[in-house]
């Protein structure tokens, strides 16, 4: 894969473009150390070292690192190769609804089919049962049995279709939530919060 060093925000190119995103090195600007991913200082969030990179090379905003790890599907530093302390949090159903339009449209289409087919299946079942009852009263056992078998097949087909459709959508939603899980940094004892003034001195 082609590896590109990001000069701005690391999520401008992601896995969809076939490139692996690698944050550029952190530099110390005139105002102090900066995050090596977004190239901003500690005015918006504190800079923290989560790996073994020395000096300003290891300075990162936690939100920048979490976003980069989520997009790149990496779990370790690309420079020192130390694993970051992370956990993966599955996305919510609301996020799936907003960010998976194709799956959402397929689910809505199947829900509409279910709403339309439910009364049709119910009416067909009722007509078959009424016909079977009428045939049974006139001692036409074969015709009554055929109508009963038809009603059973009708309801079974509807139930089987509903089951496999619901199963497909549940599996599709679960897979999307797992594949697009958010990476969250887990605090640990040896995490070092960088003092900017001490670094500059």
From TrEMBL:
GO terms for cellular component: membrane. Its main location: membrane. It is a multi-pass membrane protein. PROSITE patterns: ZF_RING_CH. Keywords: Membrane, Metal-binding, Transferase, Transmembrane, Transmembrane helix, Ubl conjugation pathway, Zinc, Zinc-finger. It is found in: Membrane. GO terms for biological process: protein ubiquitination. GO terms for molecular function: ubiquitin-protein transferase activity; zinc ion binding. Coiled coil: none annotated. The chain crosses the membrane at residues 106-125, 145-164. Residues 27-87 form the RING-CH-type domain. Gene3D superfamilies: Zinc/RING finger domain, C3HC4 (zinc finger) (3.30.40.10). SUPFAM superfamilies: RING/U-box. This is Putative membrane-associated ring finger. The lineage of its organism: Eukaryota, Metazoa, Ecdysozoa, Arthropoda, Chelicerata.
